[in-house]
Amino acid sequence: MAKAPETPKEPTIPPAGFIPPLPRTVQETGLSMGFLTDLALKIMYFEGNLSGLDLAERMSLPYPGVVEQVVEFLKREKLCEVKGAGTGGTFSQASYQYAIAEKGRAMAREALERSNYAGAAPVPLDTYNKAIRAQPLSQVAVHPRTVRQSLSHLVINETTFGQLGPAVNSGKSIFLFGPPGNGKTAIAESIGRMLFNTAVYIPYAVEIAGQVIKVFDYVNHIPVTQLDGGKAVDPRWVLIRRPLIVTGGELTLETLDLVYDETNKFYEAPFQMKANGGMLLIDDFGRQQVRPRDLLNRWIVPLEKRVDFLTLHTGRKIEVPFDVLIVFSTNLAPRDLVDEAFLRRIRHKIEIKNPTFEEFREIFQRVCTDKGIPFSEEGLRYLLQEYYIKPRRPLRSCHPRDLADQVLDIARYMNVQPALTRDLIDRACTAYFVEL
Hints:
The protein has 16 helices and 17 strands. It is α/β, with parallel strands linked by helices and 436 residues long. It folds into three domains: 32-118, Arc Repressor Mutant, subunit A, CATH 1.10.10; 128-351, Rossmann fold (3-Layer(aba) Sandwich), CATH 3.40.50.300; 357-432, Helicase, Ruva Protein, domain 3 (Orthogonal Bundle), CATH 1.10.8. Helix 2 (33-47) crosses helix 5 and helix 14 runs parallel beside helix 16 (422-432).
């Protein structure tokens, strides 16, 4: 790589995109009054006095018709008390300050024994499933120009270019394999960024039988401006760039199912659920603690049926869409990882090979320009002859970047200008290469 990829453009919703309508009543939220009452009491229990509008903001629900009805229920049942008007000078009920009553505190503590979740109101699982299916990856199509722009920071041969575009458009699965250091991870992440020109709505959380599954998180999801054409949008949903989620050696079978927090008593969505509508990269596949074949067996049904089955801690199974472009990236030989039955289910198998001498030269020249090192044909010829051709060392795409960094470190220590001199090249290669 010679330079960082360009920041993707601000995404827009596809013409057929899903826009969650604003609920006007409690019934339209899909949640019971009991669930909303418990959620409101937990928020008030943790935060103290709140105005009606503040409570609506914490619950990510509109005040008129929804939170308004919840507050009326709390007052009627003597679960909360009115403490006065807000400081804004308005005397509407939405601005009144409410405090949880002693009876409400007892009820809140009972609710907290079931679940500590006190965030944005979730959406029902059925609503989530319909929304994901209404925003399919099939809406995204890339063309040669898009692929070249997204991969312009990499030196890639024409054969690989020709394979990547159709693989992205499949929206299904890609198996990237080849020797280490040739940019498989960089290529995979660039594939994910090709999806960034569109956006999808995901909920903050999902509800199923009173249980809450957290879906949105700021680590894996990038919120964007809501381009909704002026329509009133359900605030329980957030518009994000199509997700690009990366997992590597930390991946286990347990993290591919609902993760139940025993302390807080709610669930965290697994990687593939958070990646719905986008891409999931399993980097360095084969290096996980769990056996590769066990992981592969876990993916067979989702890859074939495009649905996934997750398990609640009660043992109940739930079905969610699997609309994910899943990318396996590995340095290991496919024959050591997978069998024919699994490879058949992977749509696109792409080998990322070692660079040619000409490609290696172009990478080196880009790296030198990027790092402020004067490029020298003579220095490159010396490097190739002494440290690649003579010892029969294979070229790797990462070597120019790494060796340039070595030259910079040594030049700074010696207080000389960085350059591709024989002395600095010898010092850099001696420190970098190890015979295995």
